[in-house]
Structure formats: structure tokens, C-alpha cells
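Handoff note, outgoing to incoming analyst
You'll be picking up this chain. Sequence as last confirmed:
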Amino acid sequence: MSATPAEMSPEATKRLNNIAKFWSDKLRAATTDADLARVCFDRARSAAVKAERGGGNKRAMHELAQLLAAWAEQQEQAEIVRRTRHSA
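Most recent structure output, in case you need it:
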């Protein structure tokens, strides 16, 4: 279970704020949806690597892969449904 901000040490809070600022700056700099997706993917991959290396979640990268695969499958299914409806 994760600590809430009220339960974090000042050092942990500062680190979390620094991470949030780092990614927020990158998100604001994104000029296209593709840039935005790349930044979000980079953030998720970075978090998964840190979780695995830190020993907190040895399956973090696998869990990220499962989430991405499920999202992709939903998009693929929706596209097939759209194409089927338009060709009928």
C-alpha cells in the first residue's frame, strides 16, 4: 500500500514533487497527441523500471505490458466494428 502525502517524509514529498514537475514540464512541451503518448509511455516505463529495480514490484513491467496490450486490443476491436459498420 502506498503512503499518502500526509504520511511521507519531507524528503519523499520533495522527491515526488520533483518527479511530478519533471513529467509535467515534458507533458506541457508536447505539441501533438503522438508526443503526448510518447511522454506518457516514457513515464510509465520509467516508473516500472524504478519499481522493479527498487524491489517494490518485481512484476511492474509485466503489468504495464498487460495494460498496454488490453488497451490495444480494445482499440483494434473498436476499429474492426467501425469498419464493419461502414462497409455494410
